[in-house]
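Changelog-adjacent note: as of this version, every example in the card shows the full chain rather than a window. The one below runs 519 residues end to end.
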Amino acid sequence: MNSGMNNSPRLGNVGLWLAGPLSGLLMALAFPRAGQGWLAWLALVPLFLLLPYRPWRTGFSAGVVFFAVLLYWLNLVMTTYGQLPWLLSVAAYLILAVYLALFWAASCWYAARVRNRLGIPLPVAVAVCWGALEYVRSWLLTGFPWGCVAYSQLDVPWLVQGADLFGVYGLVVAIVGVNALVAEALRPIFERRALAWRPLAVAIVVVTFQLGYGAWMLSRPATTGDALRVALVQGNIDQHLKWDPAFLQQTLERYNQLSAQATDPDLIVWPESATPFFYQNGGPRAYQVRAVARQQQAYLLFGSPSYQRSDATGEKERVAYLNSAYLLSPQAQQLGRSDKVHLVPFGEYVPLWGMFGLVEKLATGIGDFVPGTLQPLTLDGHQAGVLICYEAIFPELARSLVAQGAQILINITNDAWFGNSAAPWQHLDMARMRAVENRVWVLRSANTGVSALIDPTGRVVAHSSLFEPALIEGVAEFKQGGSLYTRTGDSLPRLLVAVVLLWLWQARKKKLLSARSDG
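Full-length structure tokens:
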């Protein structure tokens, strides 16, 4: 793409080809398990140095490398649990990496376009475009926001606290903007001119604000709420045995034994589908689950599949399955049920089944699931919001629960699919961000880990290891979420989308006017 500039920076042919992949690799190293979060503030500099000259090609190559490295564990999921041949698995994995890379490429191309035609400063243009398209990625085709650059900062507490202002997308704008400002400062050097100090000074101001706001929030006296003694149970049930009827009794006994070790808990939490049978049908196994609440005199929240029968007359009865969480009182009375609303495509249902009926589901399950209704559960006079499995990666779901009155968030999940990879830690970091955004405690119980007790600053108070039975105990608090993000939601990224559309309309209008004048 012609940017209106005659020459590329003097990086050499090898540098021109490697700048994009280098940025992708550096950004991937900012995520678990490498966990070098500081790299995120500089990783995109090579990419942005070339952005004015070859935006699409460089952005795309950076995105492919980033997502290919970050999501390497998908091959384990598809071959081990989806039973896909490894060639088909690699093909699907690469297709997903290419699809996600298109958002990076489009962000760079849009930014270069509005810079060249409207004169928008490149750091402003790329930060706005990137933030807008990260938001679009979170909902387009059901959404897959895994790998949003802001999640690289969870282990740098001073830099992540700003998420309570504008959510994860505010951090995206800051990180991408700083990278672009540093690139602007360095570009003259590659063109054999002096360093540009002004963009570098602005970058320092942005980082200083992030650090200052984070330090201020971390130094504020913590507001206290009603205490809740929590026991998070990690059963570590092998995925190949989880749905085996012959192993069901052993599964229940393990959860019962681990729960019995808890010291005077108020709430016991079991993971997603901890009871791999229909609890709602009652019977001896359901009685064993209720016995845990009675014996411990504690509330018990656990995952279990459920179903609803249709009321249609004159037709064959239809059954809709749901991925659910039940809450029992200390007297073993059912207080409520929370159903998963954001399902995993090709895991819990197959999109457009009528068109793609030959595509098998990757998850071992009972049938296609349907989404439920998002609403908090009443727990000891307070409201608790439940996020099932990867619902924790969607900011709006957690925000909606807190806005409805949830004073604590509970994430139950089964990350056995991921194996002993970086994925469980990446998943944990996204749950941690939900705590910061809404300033509430997050309780996370995972079948094989990582189970964790997370405070409102995103700090992990206690956590388990992977692939071992565990009992995590601690004290959380019911807190009324009151952050700016909780109140305003995703208003910032929606504004960014509107700005990008306005810029593109203005750029097109200017091009048409220029063509008419030339004619």
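Structural remarks: Confidence is low (pLDDT under 50) at residues 1-6, 353-359.
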